[in-house]
Amino acid sequence: MWSSNVLTGKELSISGISATALAQEFATPAFIMDEADFRARAISWDDALKSAFGENAGTVYYAAKAFLCTEVARWIKDIGIGIDVCTGGELAVALAGGVEPAKIELHGNNKSVAEINKAVSVGVGTIVLDSLFEIDRVAAAATQHGRVQKVLLRLTPGIEAHTHESIATAHEDVKFGFSIASGSAWRAIEAVRTHSSIELRGFHAHIGSQILDTGSFEISAERLIALLAKYRDAFGVELPELDLGGGYGIHYVPGDEELAPSVAMQAVATAVTTHCAVHSLSIPKISIEPGRAIVGPTMFTLYEVGTVKDVTLENGDNRRYISIDGGMSDNIRPSLYQADYTAVLANRTSTAPLLSTRLVGKHCETGDILIYSIELAGDIAPGDLLAIPATGAYGRSMASNYNHVLRPPVIAVKNGKARVIVRRESEADLLGLDI
Ligand code: LLP
Fold this sequence. Notes:
Elements (H helix, E strand, L loop, with lengths): L5 E2 L5 E2 L2 E2 H8 L3 E5 H19 L3 E7 L6 H10 L2 E4 L2 H9 L7 E3 L6 H10 L3 E4 L2 H13 L4 E8 L21 E2 L4 H9 L5 E7 L10 H21 L5 E3 L17 H18 L6 E4 L3 H4 L3 E14 L5 E7 L8 H5 L6 E2 L8 E7 L8 E9 L7 E5 L20 E5 L2 E6 L4 H6 L3
Parallel strand pairs: 4-20, 5-6, 5-13, 6-7, 7-8, 8-9, 9-10, 9-11, 11-12, 12-13, 15-17
Antiparallel strand pairs: 1-2, 2-3, 4-14, 14-15, 14-19, 16-19, 17-18, 20-21
Bound molecules: ligand LLP.
Keywords: Decarboxylase, Lyase, Pyridoxal phosphate
GO molecular function, one term: diaminopimelate decarboxylase activity
Cofactor: pyridoxal 5'-phosphate
């Protein structure tokens, strides 16, 4: 839930720097990121993949959509893992951070021709194909650039992973990929084989997000492997790669049990080995794309309390509303997915009795709620600091300018030093787009 260098219990601190000092230097709201924790998490997924699959380990592609900025792209380059991008924008940031194009994988269900051309021309390692149109577009771009582009086909293995509907992506009624069950995957395979400028390396599936058990990953692997066998039976050659996507869940609130990298990778390795043996296939190179599981726990959001208000409910109970200086523009997940978070008083401790509290933002919208119900110290007052942990994934990356609120900065902390890696937006930034 908290990153490894955060201490709670008294005044909250990270790598020895107090919440108060951070608020004084960088103001609030701010995303505070634990750099060492980010690096350690990325490395532990890489190690887990390697130790579970040995020579059959493919690549850990960090899913940029969870959070990316140029500095984080530099860390990815340093660590030596790959990166999954799904737009030209994410590709540009990855390249700006110096990530080797061969270690970039391009996703997206509607990549523009310009995005495809850019990706092919810089030499991205893999393009994951998502529609029949795209097969022709990527083949044409590869021909135009005189390259043979490596591709995977994105497949929907028909699994309802246990997660929120809008972040589940591999059951049948979705916009992503080619369905195995309906035969569209097979038509895509045949279409790819008509082009000599693209080389089909294997299959990809991403079954959902914030998944806390390994069962769905095992079923996904089983179905993709059955299709690898069908391919071998039809064409007499084995495809060498499978990418099983991301989706590994993290600990947001008490009760969530994070899926440890070694546990997840061992379970997937057992499933892959078993099903390859069933079909007498050699084990393909296995890649994964964790986003949330790498970056989620590495950040907390630091807010300042602006107002406290007591509201009497219909049943006569009291609810305390605490308003902080951010809200749905820096964390849309509670409103969009009913995602749960927790919060702590960050600038001091309190022995005041706990009160049932709703934590809300500053937006002009009733649904601007960060935490529906939480017990917080009854003496919390304007000027206090609150910290919400595990906001690293899909917080800053899904932030908006709703109400022309300025998006918060990202402050990286390491070895007792804090620095801005994404600066706070300014009114000049807002006005700069207007003609
Ligand atoms: N690979 C592909 C192809 C994906 O579509 C995604 C996420 C990932 C990897 C990374 O998934 P992760 O390991 O981070 O769960 N905005 C939502 C999550 C949407 C994820 C979309 N795709 C949220 O805030 O929960």
